[in-house]
Structures are given as C-alpha cells and as structure tokens.
Design brief:
Oligomer: single chain
Helix content: 25-40%
Mean pLDDT: 83
Largest sheet: 6 strands, mixed
Distance between the termini: 22 Å
Strand content: 15-25%
Radius of gyration: 29 Å
Strand order of the largest sheet: 1-10-2-3-7-6
Order of helices and strands: HEEEHEEEEEEEEHEHHH
Shape: elongated
Number of strands: 12
Keywords: Membrane, Transmembrane, Transmembrane helix
Low-confidence stretches: none
C-alpha cells in the first residue's frame, strides 16, 4: 500500500487536471456562444442565400409562361429527408404537337452516376398532375404542378452532423403512346434548392467532383461536364450548426463534472439523463424504429460516465459508513 502523502499528491494532481478541464470547458462554451450569436443575429445561421442553390436558367422573365419549361423545387427536413415538387409549363404549340390532352405528361428523374464501378439502374418517377389549359390568355399555355414526393439522395444520415448528401438527377418529361415512350425536348429545365437553415448546397459541374472517388484509372477528361439539364449538388451541414451541436454536447458535460466535484451523489445523474433526452430530440428528433446516429453513442457514453461516477461515489460512501459502524464512530 502506498504512503499517504503519495495518495494525497495523486488526488491533488487529479483535482488540478479536473479544474483545468472545467475552466477550458467554460471558456469554450462562452467563445462558442458568442460565435454563434454573431453568426445568427438575423435569426438564421449564416447568410440567407447559403441554403439556396439552383441549376438551369432563371424563371423570372415575363415571357416565361409562353415557353416550355420545367421547374423542380428541392426541400428537406433537418433529419436529412429530401422532397421534390415543382411545376411544368407547356406552350399551346407543344400541347397540340404531342397531343397532351390525350397522352398524360409524365416525369422521370434519371440519377447521375455516383460511383465509377456501377452506373445507375433505377429511375425516380414524379407524378405530374393534370394540365390546366389557359389558351384563351395572352400566354396561350398549359400548366400543372408536380406531386410532392420524397427523393433519394446519396449519403449516410447516421454520420450526423458530419453527413454529406449528394443530389444528382437529369429530369426528363415524356409521354407514352402505346408501348412507345416519347421524350419531350425541353430546353428550359431549372432545379431550385431551398434547404433548411442548417444545410449548404454546393453545385457540382462535372462527374469527377460529384463522384468524389479516388481512382487511378480515371482521368479528368474521361467524363464530360454536365449538360444543361443535368443537375448535381453536394449538400453539407453549415459550420455554425456543427458548433451548436458541439456546444450542446459540452453542456451535457456540466452535470458530469458536478458528479466529480460533489462529495455525495445527488440528482446529477438524473439531470444528465434529462439533458441527453432533450438534446437528442432537439437535434435529430425522437428515436424511430431504433435508428441510431453516430452521435447517439456519444450520448450513451455521457450517460454511462455519469452513472459510473455516481455509483462509485455511492459505493465509497457506503463502505465508509460500514467501516465507521464497525469502529463505533461516525464517518
């Protein structure tokens, strides 16, 4: 058994390390708080346009309704679920040429190649609602909305908040004449990204950037740049949102530190449980079908540490009480 002065020295060093860590934690929390405050003073994280992106021509021309165009709108939830909606406009000439009153207009989204090893195999179908004819107006057009639906993107939501999603599609409007599929040659196809406040889309202009794989057999010129109707985005979380997640995780360390500072365990373990539950629901929502994110294992580690330290202190106090009872003294 070591000398008492050695045990005292070890305890003193441990307390100094704990005190230094506590000061660094407090400093980090305040620095992060003021950083996020400066970045989100307008009520949004970063600039308003940071969560917005588009492919294709703008649709702000007063003569747009006289032309054939397709507009896709891509939105998302904070959990990384993406949806597509939009509208389609056809001129009277196109309507009559393809007999759109007889053959319903359809839309398929052809996925762009996301890996060098395998080309995409399946398309995404988006339902086009019945066309509304407006041929008596000066625009002489027909228009319809697209039925909103979920859209598949490439990415792992379990890596929250460091997940990276890739959206890449080529929209094609077509009709079915019996067994024959006829594609409509629309030149004005626009995709608008209007994402939640926590995401930033970055447009990719060529397959090499979109695929983002290291392959020595592939040269930069092997794949041409994307065409006018092809749209590819890389979508990531904003840096300020990642800092918010870090701050919330550090806040969960406060009751854990209080467990270490207290002589007796109190409600700090319960506070840790409630804090983890609140932060988890705030960031990614309630647990659904036991789908776990990487951050859930951090939450689990915090709970286990708080419970471990609380239980060890309770066991030590109980041992002291038993020893004092055997000696006939108070502990």
């Amino acid at each position: 058994m070591g000398h008492p002065w050695k045990r005292v020295a070890a305890v003193s060093v441990a307390k100094k390390i704990l005190g230094l860590f506590s000061l660094l934690l407090i400093l980090t929390l305040w620095v992060g708080y003021f950083y996020v405050y400066q970045d989100a003073r307008s009520g949004r994280l970063g600039d308003t346009l940071d969560s917005y992106g588009w492919c294709g021509p703008a649709m702000d021309s007063p003569h747009s309704f006289k032309r054939d165009y397709l507009l896709l709108r891509v939105t998302n939830s904070t959990q990384g679920e993406f949806k597509v909606s939009g509208e389609v406009n056809v001129s009277e000439r196109t309507y009559n040429r393809y007999e759109l009153g007889r053959y319903p207009l359809k839309l398929r989204l052809e996925p762009l190649q996301s890996t060098y090893s395998m080309p995409p195999l399946f398309f995404e179908e988006v339902k086009v609602k019945p066309l509304n004819r407006n041929f008596s107006s000066p625009h002489k057009n027909a228009y319809a909305d697209l039925e909103s639906r979920s859209i598949r993107v490439i990415g792992e939501s379990s890596r929250f908040p460091f997940e990276v999603y890739r959206y890449g599609y080529k929209p094609v409007l077509y009709i079915l004449k019996g067994n024959e599929q006829v594609d409509l040659p629309f030149k004005r196809i626009t995709t608008q990204m209007n994402l939640s406040n926590t995401f930033t889309p970055t447009r990719m202009y060529n397959p090499a950037d979109y695929i983002a794989e290291q392959n020595s057999l592939v040269q930069p010129g092997d794949y041409p740049a994307y065409g006018a109707s092809e749209c590819a985005f890389s979508i990531e979380r904003k840096g300020s949102f990642k800092i918010i997640v870090l701050l919330l995780l550090l806040v969960l360390c406060l009751p854990l530190l209080m467990v270490l500072y207290r002589d007796e365990p109190t409600i700090d373990f319960l506070a840790t449980l409630l804090g983890v539950a609140a932060v988890r629901v705030f960031l990614v929502g309630p647990l659904q079908d036991y789908q776990l994110y990487g951050i859930d294992f951090v939450f689990g580690a915090v709970i286990i540490l708080a419970g471990t330290f609380s239980l060890l202190k309770a066991m030590r106090i109980d041992a002291r009480r038993e020893a004092a009872a055997r000696r006939g003294t108070t502990w």
